[in-house]
Structures are given as structure tokens and as C-alpha cells.
Design goal:
The chain has 297 residues and is α/β, with parallel strands linked by helices. It has two domains: 24-89, Orthogonal Bundle (Chemotaxis Receptor Methyltransferase Cher, domain 1); 100-296, 3-Layer(aba) Sandwich (Rossmann fold), CATH 3.40.50.150. 41% of the residues lie in helices and 19% in strands. It is built from twelve helices and ten strands. The strands form two sheets. Strands 6-2-1-7-8-10-9 form a seven-stranded mixed β-sheet. It has a three-stranded antiparallel β-sheet with strand order 3-5-4. The longest helix has 20 residues, at 100-119. 36% of the residues are buried.
Length: 297
């Protein structure tokens, strides 16, 4: 990936105006830790973003310089703070039924074909990788229930994982403000979301039956995947676009053996299958892939 050229500052100068000193070397240390831990690459153009998001952490810790913060998150005693740093720098853009063509495809080409077998006792699993605050996996669960209303009583589960423990906690809580649920069709909102008042603010909580279908776990896509069995569908959307090219290829290749026969992989609108996975997967719709006939044979 080509890196943007930049103008060098005098040694020790801050690269972003503000009360906290952030030098070029310290910015690159933070970027290197983010890349190592998550696979996310930040160019020099993201210095202001890094500063603005981490300045809150420096204030909370009573630190005056990013030098001290880098020393902390690089040390054994800073393990918890390093996780907070990663959470602060991870982009969490999501929504209910985002890229709706994927949910229509899931309904027509996966659920409708598997419904009879699932009702007869077959196992059915979907993985929402990088689930953010839970709106994607809950959208998947609503789609499942629209085809198999009794899914909560069957061997059906949605695994929802994210690297950010704050997002995992938000998904487990399953409560969203009115703006957060605006893309949920009215009939589904009435059926699966319950109005609740939290501190005088109206929110919508997922119904227990819907929540019972989704299991949330913390997981780093670059680390081990302690996952048993294969998936009928995997959603990994608008995630690998932030990775360097080789990391994208590695993650895509790891999805291939995790797919069951007839399983589908849904990726983001700006993403493409690359590396060895490109010969193992074939297009099955808009940014939708399935195992190639050669792999299924």
C-alpha cells in the first residue's frame, strides 16, 4: 500500500496542534501497535484522527504527553489501556439492515433452501464477524425469524464477534435510540423491538426471543478463531478494507474452510475477494460469494 508523503517537522515538534505533544515518531508507534494488533493500517493523513480520539484517554489518565502514553501501552502494566486505545481507534459504522440486498439474498438463497432441513433438526449457523454494536447480527436474526418463526426453538444461532469489548457489551445490552432503529421496517420494529425509557430517553430494546438467537463474543480476526463447525453464512462487511493487502488476503482465505457447503460470504460494497480465496469462491450476487463448484465437489 502506497504511503502518503509528508513534510518532516523539526525534531520533537508536535504534528497536531493542541495541548498534548504528539511527535511523528509517537504517531508511528501508535500506528504500528494498531497494525500489529488489529491489521488496521493508518496513513500519515490520520494523525489528527489519532490525536482527537486518544486525547480523551490522556485526559482520563492525567498524562500530558503522548510519549508517556506510548510508554504505558507498550508496557505489561498497560495491557488494559492498550485495549482501550484499540477500541478508540477502531471505526464502528453500522446500522440495521445496512446493504439490504444481502439480507434479501440471505432470505431467498440460504434460508428458504435450508428451512425444511432446519425444521427437521439440522444445525444452522451464521457468523457476523466484526458485529459492532449488534445491529448487524440482530438484523440477521430478524431475517431468520421472518422465514423460520420458530427458529429460537431450533438449532439456530448467530455468532456475533468484535474486537472491541465495548461494542460486544453494547450488543449484549441490545438497546438503541430512535436514530439507531430508523432503518428497521415498521412491521419488524413492532414485532421485535420494545420501547423502553432510560434516563428519560426513549430507546428500543430487542425482544427476548430475538436476543436468544444471538451469541456475542470478543474476537480478533487476526488472532485464533476458537470456533467449532462451519457456517451457512458469514457476514464480514466493511472491515478488511482497513487492512493492508496481505492481511486482507489472509483473512479472506481463512473464511473459506469456515463455510459449509452452499454457504455464503457477504462482504462490503468497497471490498473484493483477493489472494488464494479468489480461486476458492465464486460470485453469487452483489458482493456475495459461495464456495466454487470445484471446492464443493
Amino acid at each position: 500500500m502506497k504511503r502518503l508523503e509528508h513534510r518532516e517537522e523539526p525534531p520533537g515538534a508536535s504534528i497536531v496542534p493542541g495541548p498534548f505533544l504528539l511527535t511523528r515518531d509517537e504517531f508511528r508507534q501508535i500506528c504500528a501497535m494498531l497494525l500489529e494488533d488489529t491489521g488496521i493500517y493508518l496513513s500519515d493523513a490520520k494523525a489528527t484522527l489519532v490525536y482527537s480520539r486518544l486525547a480523551k484517554r490522556l485526559r482520563a489518565l492525567g498524562l500530558e504527553k503522548f510519549r508517556d502514553y506510548c510508554a504505558l501501552v507498550s508496557s505489561e502494566r498497560g495491557v488494559d489501556e492498550r485495549q482501550k486505545m484499540l477500541a478508540a481507534l477502531t471505526t464502528n459504522v453500522t446500522g440495521f439492515f445496512r446493504e439490504p440486498h444481502h439480507f434479501e439474498h440471505l432470505k431467498m438463497h440460504v434460508l428458504s433452501r435450508r428451512a425444511a432441513a432446519v425444521r427437521a433438526g439440522a444445525r444452522f449457523r451464521i457468523w457476523s464477524a466484526a458485529c459492532s454494536d449488534g445491529r448487524e447480527p440482530y438484523s440477521i436474526a430478524m431475517t431468520i425469524l421472518s422465514v423460520i418463526p420458530e427458529a429460537a426453538e431450533l438449532d439456530v444461532r448467530v455468532l456475533a464477534t468484535d474486537i472491541d469489548p465495548n461494542m460486544v457489551a453494547a450488543g449484549i445490552a441490545g438497546a438503541y435510540d430512535e436514530e439507531g432503529v430508523r432503518d428497521v421496517p415498521q412491521d419488524l420494529r413492532r414485532r421485535w423491538l420494545r420501547p423502553v425509557a432510560e434516563g428519560g430517553v426513549r430507546r428500543f430494546a430487542v425482544a427476548p426471543e430475538l436476543a436468544s438467537l444471538v451469541v456475542f463474543r470478543e474476537l480478533n480476526l487476526l488472532g485464533p478463531w476458537p470456533i467449532k463447525g462451519q457456517f451457512d453464512a458469514i457476514f464480514c462487511r466493511n472491515v478488511v478494507i482497513y487492512f493492508e493487502e496481505q492481511t486482507q488476503r489472509t483473512v479472506m482465505s481463512r473464511f473459506v474452510p469456515a463455510l459449509a457447503a452452499e454457504g455464503r460470504l457477504y462482504i462490503g460494497h468497497s471490498e473484493r475477494i483477493s489472494g488464494p480465496a479468489a480461486s476458492d469462491l465464486e460470485s453469487d450476487g452483489i458482493t456475495t460469494y459461495r464456495l466454487s463448484r470445484r471446492m464443493e465437489a
